[in-house]
Design brief:
It is a single chain. The protein is α/β, with parallel strands linked by helices and 347 residues long. The chain has 2 domains: 143 residues, NAD(P)-binding Rossmann-like Domain (Rossmann fold, 3-Layer(aba) Sandwich); 191 residues, Dihydrodipicolinate Reductase, domain 2 (2-Layer Sandwich). The strands form 2 sheets. The protein has a 7-stranded mixed β-sheet, sandwiched between helices. The protein has a 6-stranded mixed β-sheet with strand order 9-8-10-13-12-11. Helix 1 packs across helix 9 and helix 3 packs across helix 5. It is globular. The structure holds NADP nicotinamide-adenine-dinucleotide phosphate (NAP). NADP nicotinamide-adenine-dinucleotide phosphate (NAP) binds next to helix 1, helix 2, helix 4 and helix 9.
Length: 347
């Protein structure tokens, strides 16, 4: 008989993504039975609220998933912790939906954006792990999938404008303290999470460089696009930039399609697509109707698209400006949406 409630563990519960997952489980009325919250020694004992009750955060250990009959683990503790603990949870029978980069390219682990490739979830049983893509890949592919289905995308050139929350709570603190120090004429900058000063600056480096000159963040966007779209023929040319914004990533996306398109059809296709909101009235007196921007999109679920226009320099070229809440659709919401599909179709 189908269960009516599911035991859930949130691993990395005290982080930006973990906290958002707990909020989203509540606001979407996910049928939670028992809820377990895990983090490192640093925040063990902390109390977090879920639907009006307080839950104590436990320090993760090798026995944390034993004898609890956990159905789903929403995991976002960083790649090395996930590598250690996700397989232990999977061995105990839980399905792990993992936000870290560790399992994304594993052939036996589906990499899923519910609006793009929900059917891949059916392969979850190979390792009992499903991977959540990188936040920049998610917000790029949600609007590009319907365009690819109709007009076949040959090439994507993308520049990202990524907020500091994409690197976790300590990275946001770094932007805050550097900004405050500079405004107060103090010279203390001390970059730790970022390679150089992030306040009042833009940094064309996210993660480390590989020999080919691309950063790992950029390589993820290429490889994850091919895996999720099941199409290695799509050319992807990314430049990932960190900007001094707290929440929401922006992306300037240029694509070339195989088939010719009518720009009006692109606009209506995007307007009708699940998970996409078009804000593209550049002549409006109201600036909030002209185009989306990070402060507007913070806390919302959809991927917002504006500045939709032809690339006049080539045939079949299109430019888009795309903004999404990286902690929400780029991580926590995407994971909860996968969990919703799991319980409705596969459990
Ligand atoms: N932020 C985003 O927009 C975003 C988007 C997509 C994917 N992700 C991925 O999601 C993961 C978490 O990101 P975040 O932004 O939430 O980071 P965060 O704010 O730094 O939180 C990290 C969480 O993991 C826990 N943790 C860290 N190391 C641990 C360990 N060794 N053992 C147990 N728990 C550990 C931390 O616990 P303590 O509080 O005890 O330290 C905290 O709960 C990362 O892999 C990140 O790449 C993030």
């Amino acid at each position: 008989m189908k269960k009516t409630k599911y035991n859930i563990a949130v691993f990395g519960a005290t982080g930006l993504v973990g906290r958002e997952m707990i909020e989203i489980l509540g606001s979407r009325n996910f049928p939670v039975g028992s809820l377990y919250l895990f983090a490192s020694e640093e925040s063990a004992g902390e109390l977090l609220e879920f639907k009006g009750s307080e839950y104590r955060v436990e320090q993760i250990n090798e026995d944390s998933f034993k004898n609890k009959k956990i159905d789903i683990v929403l995991s976002s503790p960083g790649a090395s912790a996930s590598l250690k603990y996700s397989p232990l949870a999977a061995k105990e029978g839980a399905v792990v939906i993992d936000n870290t980069s560790y399992f994304r390219m594993d052939e036996d682990v589906p990499l899923v954006i519910p609006e793009v490739n929900p059917d891949d979830i059916k392969h979850y049983g190979k390792k009992n792990i499903i991977a959540n893509p990188n936040c920049s890949t998610i917000q790029m592919l949600v609007p590009l999938k319907p365009i690819h289905d109709k007009y076949k995308i040959k090439r994507i050139v993308v520049s990202t404008y990524q907020s500091t929350s994409g690197a976790g709570k300590k990275a946001m603190d770094e932007l805050f303290y550097q900004s405050a120090n500079i405004i107060n004429a103090k010279s203390d900058i001390f970059p730790e999470k970022f390679p150089v000063q992030i306040a009042f600056n833009c940094i064309p480096q996210i993660d480390i460089f590989s020999e080919d000159g691309y950063t790992k963040e950029e390589s993820k966007m290429i490889k994850e696009t091919h895996k999720i779209m099941h199409d290695k023929s799509i050319g992807v040319s990314p430049t990932a930039v960190r900007v001094p914004v707290f929440f929401c990533h922006g992306e300037s996306i240029n694509i070339e399609t195989e088939k010719s398109f009518d720009i009006k059809d692109i606009k209506s296709l995007l307007s009708e697509s699940r998970g996409v909101k078009v804000v593209d009235n550049i002549l409006s007196d109201n600036p909030d109707e002209r185009y989306p921007y990070p402060v507007m999109v913070n806390g919302f679920d959809d991927v917002y698209v504006g500045r939709i226009r032809r690339d006049l320099s080539i045939d079949n070229g299109l430019n888009l400006w795309v903004v999404a809440d990286n902690v929400r659709k780029g991580a926590a919401l995407n994971a909860v949406q996968i969990a919703e599909i799991l319980i409705s179709k596969y459990f």
